[in-house]
Model the fold of this input.
Amino acid sequence: MQILRLSTQLHKWVALVVGVQVLFWVAGGLVMTAIPIETVRSEHHVREAAPAALPAGSLAALPEAARRMAGGVAKAELKSTPRGPAWILTPVGGDPVVLAADTGRPFPALNPAEAARLAAAAYSGEGRPVSAVHLAEAPGETGRTGPIWRVEFPDRERTAFYLSPETGEVVTRRSAVWRFYDFFWRLHVMDWNDGEDFNHPLIVVTTFLTLSIVITGFVLLWIRLSRDLRQVRARRRKPQG
Done:
């Protein structure tokens, strides 16, 4: 009976400690399976755009642009953007630089009207943009750093498109659905800061304790079933009358 008492106490106290987190795991799992990830990412609000051909003349500006890069260029990428073809130049040391491919110079600064127009062109859904705001620092929910444009739409998910201030591209999308999902994701992985770390010691220890609940639960079940079975057999062997 000592093992029964020990298993019961361990099962009870560990369950009390980690029970709330187990509830969060189950609730988070329900949210993540019930809401399609495409809805979380607002993919149903993305308008498909035909790829634009890059003009051959865009290549002419690269030598001049590269010469102005201190330390030299480690990587050069030519791409089509909503504001026209662009060179993405990555220097040997430092952050990438975005230049208009036809001039070799930075794009003119976006204004609210142009940001709203570019976001509306990339959006599929009801309503027009209700605000276009330039943010000096990208919000934490974007997972990015530096300046960014946020354009909001009046749909039921309160969708917001975040645009590159250089190229006008939609770099990420967020909505009330994403924030709801993200809240439960952080509870699920026990990283309440940014939800990025799911291999930290706290979740490892909590998972180990939860495993001990399962093991002690099976031990208790086995002991009690064995005891009940012995009692049934004893009653059957007992003479009647």
Notes: Helices lie at 2-34, 37-40, 62-67, 112-122, 176-189, 201-237. The chain has a mean pLDDT of 83. The chain has six helices and seven strands.
